[in-house]
Design a protein that fits this description.
single chain; about 240 residues; 2 strands; mainly alpha; two-stranded antiparallel ribbon; 11 helices
Length: about 240
């Protein structure tokens, strides 16, 4: 038996709008895929950026209004996982495999490893730590592949970095969630906005960055990738 009744759902229909907001990530992902299929990578990542904004809004709203308790028929977590896998993993892997970032067969190998390790990570019930961080690289391939495409490092660096992130997926190293992790949160949020600003410039410039914007994207990316690991080391040894 279950306590999910039509009456219970009908009392608070406005809360379903939060699920609709989450689900809007699906058509956004489809539009992004169509852009990538045309080779319009900047446009594709612009749509993925919009999906990232939606993902940053719907979770706090769902927690604030206790949607899981008040609309128990619908699993916001399951819906979020479906959308996140498409936008954080599958579409970036498509860009990695379908663009000219890597030669064959490395584009297939790296793209395949991204979707493979990403799928396993999304099935990990222990991916979250008590402080709100992620345990292991959190399949944030949208940011990683975007950065590699915009900064255009060597093929060797790209391959090694992708393989490193795949390995980090399964290691007990923490990665920051910019909103949920309270420690250093003002700084982390500021760096996140710097990253978003540099990313916007890359999209406007046709997925190419040089000079100060490239430096800002590089430094902010390094901070976001490493800040929770640094905090982890400080807690353990100092």
């Amino acid at each position: 038996m279950t306590d999910i009744t039509p009456d219970k759902e009908a009392r608070e229909p406005a809360l379903f709008l939060i699920h609709l907001l989450t689900a809007s990530g699906a058509p956004i992902a489809l539009i992004a895929l169509l852009a990538g299929a045309r080779g319009a990578w900047g446009e594709m990542f612009a749509w993925l950026g919009l999906a990232l904004v939606v993902d940053g809004i719907d979770g706090p709203l769902a927690r604030k209004y206790k949607v899981a308790e008040r609309l128990p028929r619908w699993s916001g977590a399951s819906l979020d996982f479906v959308i996140d896998y498409a936008t954080y993993v599958f579409l970036p892997a498509f860009a990695l495999s379908g663009s000219d970032m890597l030669p064959q067969p490395w584009n297939w190998i790296c793209g395949g490893l991204v979707v493979f390790t990403g799928a396993l990570y999304f099935a990990d019930n222990g991916m979250k730590t008590p402080d709100g961080s992620f345990k292991g690289f959190p399949a944030g391939w949208n940011m990683v592949v975007f950065g590699l495409m915009a900064l255009s490092p060597s093929v060797t660096f790209t391959i090694v970095f992708v393989l490193l992130c795949c390995v980090l997926t399964f290691l007990p190293i923490r990665f920051v969630h910019p909103v949920r992790v309270k420690r250093w949160r003002p700084l982390t949020l500021a760096v996140t906005f710097v990253w978003l600003g540099a990313a916007a410039m890359a999209v406007i410039n046709g997925m190419a960055l040089t000079g100060i914007p490239a430096t800002l994207l590089t430094v902010s990316s390094f901070y976001l990738l490493s800040v929770s690991a640094v905090q982890q080391l400080i807690e353990r040894y100092f």
